[in-house]
Amino acid sequence: MFERLERDKKSIYVARQIIKGIQDGRFRLGDRIPPEQVIAEEIGVSRTAVREALVALEMAGVLERRAGDGTYITGFLPVSFAQAIEILQEDGNTIEIIEARALLEPCIVDLVCERASEAEIATLYPFVERMDRAVKSSDVDGFIEGDYLFHSQLAKLSKNSILEGIMEQLLFLMRKHLWRYIKEKCLREKKRWAESAEIHRVIADALKAKDLSEAKRAVSKHFEDIFKLL
On the chain, which terminus has fewer CB atoms closer than 10 Å, C or N? Predict the structure, then answer.
């Protein structure tokens, strides 16, 4: 059904293959496409590359992913195809960046718990409060900014310039199309907004109490929640 990868960025190649299937008439409006694993095996790429392509195609209005049901064709305008490819060209490694952060941030939390004073840890709370205000006012931009600043400050409190630099680069890369889309998807329901803000408060509270185990648990929960959206 799909051609195996020869060259091209993997997620872009996957997206092009799905678009080609729509253009060739193999997939029609309302059709359900094969599962991620099947696409990955046929093309010869990882499920991460497939997932990135599906997220971009959904963002462009080509697909709709329905939890527990599958992924369906919902649009076939050429401009939507072009938009999906443009998103991947600019921001195609978002999932890998999230994976890197999920591995890196527990290490950062470890150092913060060891090195940061109570007064320094207190500098995290204004960003949590900013997220809380954004929840109440349905301000997506404000929430994203509060989240960004929280994690940026967390890295600074590790007092490790290398980790801080890596985190700043990851956060910068994530402030593009796909990351915003993932955040907006997470924040469509007020309950999700509140839960996301609360987990940041739990991280700050655990660090303030020097409870490393709880801080790491909260960080892991934060990324588990993100991965569930992908």
Answer: N
Cβ pair 156, 120 in contact under 8 A: no
- Would you say the pTM of this structure is higher than 0.85? no
Alpha helices in 60-77 (DSSP H): none
Domain residue extents for the chain: 10-91, 94-228
Q: In the 8-state DSSP scheme, what is residue 123?
A: G
Please choose, from the candidates 91, 111, 99, 55, the residue with its C-alpha nearest in 3D space to the C-alpha of residue 224: 99
φ and ψ at residue 22, rounded to 5 degrees: -70, -45
Question: Residue 143: how many CA atoms within 13 Å on its side-chain side?
Answer: 26
CA distances from 68 to 38, 118, 135, 227 (A): 16, 44, 28, 15
Question: pLDDT per residue over 63-74, tens digit each?
Answer: 988 878 999 999
Say which CATH class 10-91 falls into: mainly alpha
We find that the CATH architecture of domain 94-228 is: Up-down Bundle (1.20)
